[in-house]
Inverse folding.
């Protein structure tokens, strides 16, 4: 629970219906304002479709909207997710790469639905449309449809039985290599941050990523223990990186978190802005 002395905070990692979240930008901003946050970043997977709408709505909620994006990669068969803050989200170069990734997500969903059919579960792409509200399809949307159709009782059960890594209907997704993601974010004026390192468990690669252009670690994450938060804050300091934080909220019933769940202090955003400004003064290429 937020202390009386910490009346504000930030959440720099939430997802909307533009990717695999279950809430609209308007709903997310309302949640953030109700929690007493000062700023929020909607960091959809491979999609910047919610940024313009959220930016226009944020002032009415007395919120600062930080443009964001989350991109996935692999490092030696382990997942590595990168958060991009303040990048030029209208760049044609960015949209070309994101379009390719979204098409790969669609093909992944088709494969998941085929695997579900092999388990006696009949779902269609058309049924997913109202849940995604025109955004990219992700596993939480499939999980929500499984609940609505009565195949499972909860989103968590859907992941455990069908959709999580190792389950019968899990499908790997196409990704870009880390070097390409880091270069893309930096070239477009953004700040690349490694998301939830305590979940990805790729600590042995963080120094290498820092040398390749990584600028920060998401030390404050809903799934990190106090010990992990301390570890990544120390590691960031040693490597000259900033720290960020967020709830990684996808929707009610998904992963048991909420907007603003892990009390990320305001100074995290100030350091992020400082790093953005410092990078802007450095030539690229």
């Amino acid at each position: 629970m937020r202390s009386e002395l910490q009346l504000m905070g930030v959440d720099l990692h939430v997802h909307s219906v533009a990717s695999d979240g279950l809430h609209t930008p308007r709903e997310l901003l309302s949640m953030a304002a109700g929690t007493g946050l000062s700023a929020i970043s909607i960091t959809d997977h491979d999609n910047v479709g919610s940024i313009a709408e959220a930016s226009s709505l944020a002032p009415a909620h007395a919120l600062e909207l930080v443009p964001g994006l989350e991109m996935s990669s692999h490092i030696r068969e382990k997942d590595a997710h990168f958060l991009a803050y303040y990048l030029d989200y209208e760049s044609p170069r960015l949209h070309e790469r994101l379009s390719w990734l979204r098409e790969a997500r669609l093909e992944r969903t088709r494969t998941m639905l085929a695997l579900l059919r092999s388990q006696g579960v009949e779902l269609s792409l058309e049924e997913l449309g109202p849940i995604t509200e025109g955004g990219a399809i992700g596993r939480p949307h499939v999980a929500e449809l499984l609940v609505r159709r009565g195949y499972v009782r909860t989103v968590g059960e859907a992941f455990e039985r069908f959709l999580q890594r190792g389950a019968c209907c899990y499908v790997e997704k196409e990704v870009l290599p880390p070097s390409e993601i880091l270069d893309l974010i930096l070239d477009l004026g953004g700040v690349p941050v490694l998301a939830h390192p305590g979940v990805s468990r790729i600590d042995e690669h963080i120094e290498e990523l820092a040398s390749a252009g990584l600028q920060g670690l998401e030390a404050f994450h809903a799934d990190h223990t106090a010990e992990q938060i301390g570890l990544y804050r120390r590691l960031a300091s040693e490597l000259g990186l900033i720290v960020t934080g967020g709830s990684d909220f996808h929707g009610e019933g998904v992963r048991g978190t909420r907007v603003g769940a892990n009390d990320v202090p305001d100074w995290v955003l100030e350091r992020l802005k400082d790093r953005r400004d410092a990078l802007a003064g450095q030539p690229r290429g």
Observations:
- The chain is about 40% helix and 15% strand.
- Residues 92-118 form the longest helix (27 residues).
